[in-house]
Write a structure and sequence with these properties.
CATH class: Alpha Beta
Number of strands: 10
Strand content: 5-15%
Mean pLDDT: 95
Strand order of the largest sheet: 2-1-10-9-8-7-6
Order of helices and strands: HEEEHHHHHEHHEHHEEEEEH
Number of helices: 11
CATH superfamily: DD-peptidase/beta-lactamase superfamily
Low-confidence stretches: none
Shape: globular
Oligomer: single chain
Largest sheet: 7 strands, antiparallel
Structural class: alpha+beta
Distance between the termini: 7 Å
Amino acid sequence: MGTLVLDDAVRWVRRQVEEGPLPVAVFGVATSAGTQHVKAFTGSDPRTAQVDDHYALFSVSKPLSGIVIARSVERGELSLRASLASAFPDAPPANEPWRAGIRLEHLLSHTAGLADPPLDDPRPLDEALDRARPDFAPGTMTRYSNIAFHGAARILSAVTGRTLQDEVEGLSAGLTFDPAADPHEVFGQADVGLDYAAMARHRHPAAGVNGTAAGLLEVGGSLLRALGGARGEVLHRETLRGMLEPRTIGLPEPVPGDPRRDFGLTWNIRQASTALLHRNAFGHEGWSGSQWWLYPELDLCFVLLTNLLDVRRVGVDPDELNNAVVAAS
């Protein structure tokens, strides 16, 4: 690709931080050749931003968890048809027969139907998963679910003997579930009713990763190289393509007013977005405002790390940044 001209994108981030509501941010861009740009911005956060700081990724954790599970699938260790019952090997099947109908593919595509406890629920994740019940037949509807990812993590561990957390941390030195990484303070907790410290203790597969821009750009660059046919990357090209096959388009949603989001396996795909000029994108955003998006046709990946919960609530529209980054190519 040609030279990236990121002036508009950088201006957008600077405006949101120095004049707007974002306390702090790191913005970075990569191609298949590696990282092309990283810059930190400091606003109202009393901690000065550095480009190598960790941030709480919240739901940007989901595709990272998806990558390591898909890697186990491509190795032949695990099947997408593995049932949630396999996550409870010591439980008699007759106790919860519905678990056999929820497959790994449902857990990773928000079609399992499991009722979701709050992220800061004081119960251990194992207990919350044990008590979760489906509200609809798996695969017939779509509803965003966090606890489903713990079910997927339990299946991975039961089959392979490895933990999802260790596997994700193995993707890059810039990714960790350890609070000792000292991520930037998460602002806006009282406004949305979240106890972040309680959530962080869970090391939640759906929301618990602390990441750096370099860590996400490293993984993003590897995925772009894989799509270009390179071998030895974090995923094989066909595995990633399989993850990006739409699995929720056309399915009804049971929650009125829930924003429409379409998914493959863990990836948010943007084919039906009305806010993007170029829709062939996949990635995820986090509740903290963080963004990780890849545009394979443009050989482009970008990251925005920040720390204000529910940024759209205060007028920040990250789709504006998506469009500015695309235009930079």
